[in-house]
Automatic annotation (TrEMBL):
It comes from the Bacteria. Pfam families: HTH_5. It comes from Clostridium thermobutyricum DSM 4928. Keywords: DNA-binding, Transcription, Transcription regulation. Coiled coil: none annotated. Residues 1-85 form the HTH arsR-type domain. The keyword Transcription applies. PROSITE patterns: HTH_ARSR_2. This is Transcriptional repressor SdpR.
Length: 85
């Protein structure tokens, strides 16, 4: 759960998740929404992938990223369980 919260602590990564919630995208499409280098976007994508918040699939010459809503639901459920009486 720690990797997920670390990944979600960054505003850029939260914005990437919002974009991927709308549709699957490649790194170039994601990068167009930000004023930063493609290597910086790749680093953010790596952190999201390590936390299993996104998955990637090679399609032709592109790596396509998609959101993993199952992990988000599990983490939020686990977080809410902390506050149950």
């Amino acid at each position: 759960m720690g990797k997920v919260f670390k990944a979600l602590s960054d505003k850029t990564r939260r914005e990437i998740l919002k974009l991927l919630n709308d549709k699957d995208m490649n790194a170039g499409e994601i990068a167009k929404h930000f004023d930063m280098s493609k290597p910086s976007i790749s680093k953010h994508l790596d952190i999201l992938r390590e936390a299993e918040l996104i998955s990637s699939e090679k399609r032709g010459q592109f790596m396509i990223y998609s959101i993993n809503t199952t992990v988000i639901q599990e983490v939020l459920g686990g977080f809410l369980d902390l506050f149950k009486k």
